[in-house]
């Protein structure tokens, strides 16, 4: 059961999810720091946030409440977005050094390493994982009204992070103005999707697969928000745009299921009638073929008779 939250609580949760400080949240909301602390105390009492050192972090309960609230504000959720960036240059001891790195959530604008810490990002929760030849970045969830807005925000996070990762880890991800960047995962969701609500009423999920058996679309009900999700790592933006185009056309040109059924039945009837007509035409053509054959034989016989008379 997802608990409801107020508008002020949602804004504070959203700010904390991006690891903004209390001062930054107060400036963003244009209220006093005391007002923000008052909200955080309530959220802490409700178990929606917890404090780690000097930083605040959302609990699963807090993330669920925020996700449910934002679902009524935005139309799209862009999540599980991860980039794999090939390392162009690295230090000689890179393999040894990277073994001291972990999957790193960034708290309060700092990234914690096993043996040290670096100032790194000034925006939300980013996770970094290293391999021998690459760095993997996982970005936080992005909410927006359009696919394009979310992509632009994600690209801004990515390209802002690259030079800071290079400086902190003493590696090169961009060389000669070139970088090898691959999207290894991304998922799109239409929030408050009416089709998802129908499936929620039946307590069911829908999985749509392509001709290769890969799942392309999922319909479910997460955190009390009906979602239609596109999950293909490369084609999900195209899939989401296709769904948007279909839904927009359906709004502009409404079609009920009864009308659709009537259209299908009409097409089926026409196909049956067409097949019957084709069969009739084929019989006629065969008859014409036989008639022409008979005429040909008659003409041949007539020619023979004319020749006999000539003799």
Would you write up a description of this structure?
There is one protein chain. The protein has about 300 residues and is an alpha+beta fold. It folds into 3 domains: about 60 residues, Winged helix-like DNA-binding domain superfamily/Winged helix DNA-binding domain (Arc Repressor Mutant, subunit A); about 170 residues, no CATH class; about 55 residues. Helices cover about 50% and strands about 25% of the residues. It is built from 9 helices and 13 strands. Strands 3, 4, 5, 6, 7, 8, 9, 10, 11, 12 and 13 form an 11-stranded antiparallel β-sheet that branches. Strands 1-2 form a two-stranded antiparallel ribbon. Strand 5 and strand 6 form a beta hairpin. The termini are far apart. About 5% of the residues have low confidence. InterPro entries: WH-like_DNA-bd_sf (IPR036388), WH_DNA-bd_sf (IPR036390).
Please summarize what this structure is:
The protein has three domains: 64 residues, Winged helix-like DNA-binding domain superfamily/Winged helix DNA-binding domain (Arc Repressor Mutant, subunit A, Orthogonal Bundle), CATH 1.10.10; 170 residues, no CATH class; 57 residues. Helix content is 48%, strand content 23%.
> Which structural class matches the secondary elements?
alpha+beta
Helix content range: 40-55%
Tell me, briefly, the overall form. Answer: elongated
The mean pLDDT is 73
* Number of separate helices: 9
pLDDT < 50 runs, ≥5 residues: 117-124
What amount of the residues lies in strands?
Answer: 15-25%
Largest sheet properties:
11 strands, antiparallel
Order of helices and strands: HHHEEHEHEEEEEEHEHEEEHH
Q: Could you tell me how far the N terminus lies from the C terminus, measured between alpha carbons in angstroms?
A: 110 Å
Record field, number of beta strands = 13
InterPro entries: WH-like_DNA-bd_sf, WH_DNA-bd_sf
